[in-house]
Amino acid sequence: MSSLLRRTIKRAIIAGGLVAGAALLSGCQMVVMDPKGPIGMQEKDLIILAVLLMLIPVVPVIFMTFWFAWRYRASNTKSTYAPDFEHSNRIEAVVWAIPTLIIIALGAVTWISTHELDPRAPLAPHESMPHVKPIEVEVVSLDWKWLFIYPEYNIATVNEMALPVGTPVHFKLTSATVMNSFFIPQLGSQIYTMTGMETQLSLRADHAGTYDGISANYSGHGFAGMKFQALALDDAGFKAWVAKAQSSQAALDGAAYAELEKPGMEFKPTYYATVAPDLFHKVLNNCVNGGLCTDDSHNMAMMKNLAPGAAQCKPGEEPKLKAAKPAVAEAAITFKPVAHKS
Predict the structure, then answer these.
(1) Series of mean pLDDT values for 10-residue runs along the chain (342 residues)
(2) Which residues fall within 8 angstroms of residue 188, CB to CB, at 6 or more apart?
(3) Phi–psi pair at 153, nearest 5 degrees
(4) Do the beta carbons of residue 99 and residue 60 sit within 8 Å?
(5) Distance between CA atoms of 145 and 116, rounded to whole angstroms?
(6) Is the whole-model pTM more than 0.85?
């Protein structure tokens, strides 16, 4: 086989691979680069800036790779031939200085931006509605579904949530099972959910629409189907959505939650007109099914430590403290200043 034919076949394979890759990627939606809220917009700007900074050394290297190959080809007798060349201070300075400066710039930008995008930080409402109050949403990740509780409206939904356009939403999140990750790509800020721990997140949607929410952390067999819809609605639409949930015949009591907690895949959107009191608190503290809540146990232990010798507390009882003075007061009374010797 001639060298020309081999080169032709090689080029055809490369071209075919590029065409196939383009065809496969044509169905992908770059939702992260199409943000619909202030957090997503800032994250998009950070991604673009970081890529541009990293392209500063990449583009010249790609260009010089082709230029060197052409300039120092065997047939170019005019190019300098220096087989004994081994070092250049100028080249070393450029090779080390430029990447170092880029890393410093990239680190500074990332440090500042990530602190400005603190997920706990409250968001201001849209400028067109400056006096609107944020909405509270409690989120529980389950196997393999998402539970959303709206404490202000005493409703709950599964695999569907709604938020008014321009209104900040403050999320409190936890997990009733393994660690998971809550992510609405077009609104920004992926955040983890963990058993016995509460994370917080603030988001805002500035454009009406339906946005895909996903689980961004592998959590078992049903992970691929653990998706939900985030509906960004105008004020009238959000009120209608709340009314729809309130008209449901289902109630999220202990029995309904126990059924919901069972592993299941591709759970359809479900609405609950009422929610058991303090359900999120009980999920967070592992006491939905009865027993002593984690925070109560911790508080009882703290009270026991503050009053050594006190009677052992039982769930639901107030700790019986001794009449003795607190340890802090005793320490204050017995403290004597020490005279400094000259």
Answers:
(1) 63 67 60 88 90 89 90 84 84 89 90 88 87 93 94 95 94 94 92 94 94 90 90 95 94 91 84 93 88 82 66 55 43 40 41
(2) 35, 37, 39, 40, 41, 42, 43, 117, 203
(3) -110, -5
(4) no
(5) 31
(6) no
